Amino acid sequence: EFGGSVGILEENDVVGPRADPAAWPDMNLRDLEYIVAVADLQHFGRAAQQCHVSQPTLSSQIKKLEEELGVPVFERTKRRILPTDTGAQIINAARRVLAEAGALREIAAAAHDPLAGRYRIGAFPTLASYLLPHIVPALKRALPQIRLILVEEKSDALIQKLRGGQIDTAFLALPVAGHGLHCSALFDDRFVVAVSDSHTLAQRTSIDADVLARHRLLLLDEGHCFRDQALEVCHLMGVSEDADFRATSLETLRHMVRANSGVTLMPEIAVRNPDDGIKYIPFEGRPPSRSIALVRRKTCSRAPVYARVEDVVKTWAHDEAVRRTAHD
Fold it and tell me: I want to staple 41 with a disulfide (CB 3.0 to 4.6 A). Which of 46, 96, 149, 192 is the partner?
């Protein structure tokens, strides 16, 4: 439910463009934050909570903005709120304006101390749980005056937050589409095959495409970038997906494998040695992998912090590669 009193433009209301664009009002950033919040949450009440204002205040300001612009930004029905075609363009422009305003604040803050203040780092689910616990202590030592804020979201949401200035940088898998973003490759995360230790494949020391093609793989649900990466491997190796099951996390996949309900791919960063009930089998030859990068906006003024984060992660990745080689 939308709840409360929502200022809306009714279907029969006539909204026309202003004859004199010079007479258009000066918009403030708060109005832009309101329409972006509603677009993201598709709910006036939750948007008001996020913006720390009352719902009537947010609703009336959006209605006022629509009337002053002469176009509706949102379509409202009893069940949903959607941007109009023109509204979608306005919202995208608002995101860019807010991102640039955030960049202005960062420039001013960085002028005082570029290595102090808040720094927001995003990571996608199949990486966050396995990378962040290793690097956060080192980041705190390298950046003692920085207050780290960690955000775990799917890749598409992270890119949107990055562009909108809601986070400063993100760990993403390459390639990252779009302009205005700077990517620094950090390390390659190889894939291995995970099977139950009672599975027929468990006795193998390596695996190739011909062997793997005899088995259907358990994969993650839609929206996870690791699913897309695994499907690419399946396509290259002629492997089929087990369409009867899709997991919501790598840990669910791990439980299914442990129960001998199928086999799956696992990124090496998520491998546990030893892992009771599971055998991880490397690929023969050059293994498939995903390339992990640190991504920021090109306009971001926190380059010194970004460089420290990059150095910390590359150092960890190098040490981890040495450790794994010694273990193998």
Answer: 46
Q: Which of 188, 183, 243, 184 is closest to 217 using CA atoms?
A: 243
Closest CA to 275 of 182, 181, 202, 217: 202
Residue 328 to residue 324: CA distance in whole angstroms: 6
Which is it for strands 169-173 and 289-297: parallel, antiparallel or unpaired? antiparallel
Tens digit of each residue's pLDDT (9 = 90 or more) over 56-95: 999 999 999 999 899 999 998 877 889 999 999 999 999 9
Cβ-in-10-Å burial (0-12, 13-18, 19+) of 242 comes to middle
The answer to whether residues 295 and 181 touch, using CB atoms and an 8 Å cutoff, is: yes
pTM of the model: 0.68
SS (H, E, C) the chain: CCCCCCCCCCCCCCCCCCCCHHHCCCCCHHHHHHHHHHHHHCCHHHHHHHHCCCHHHHHHHHHHHHHHHCCCCEEECCCCEEECHHHHHHHHHHHHHHHHHHHHHHHHHHHHCCCCEEEEEEECHHHHHHHHHHHHHHHHHHCCCEEEEEEECCHHHHHHHHHCCCCCEEEEECCCCCCCEEEEEEEEEEEEEEEECCCHHHHCCCECHHHHCCCEEEEECCCCHHHHHHHHHHHHHCCEEEEEEEECCHHHHHHHHHCCCCEEEEEHHHCCCCCCCEEEECECCCCCEEEEEEEEECCCCCHHHHHHHHHHHHHHHHHHHHHHHHHC
Query: Are the C-beta atoms of 60 and 70 separated by less than 8 Å?
Result: no
- Residue-wise pLDDT for 197-244, tens only, equals 999 999 999 999 999 999 999 999 988 999 999 999 888 889 999 888
Among candidate residues 324, 299, 146, 124, the one with its CA nearest the CA of residue 227: 124
Tokens of 208: 């190739």
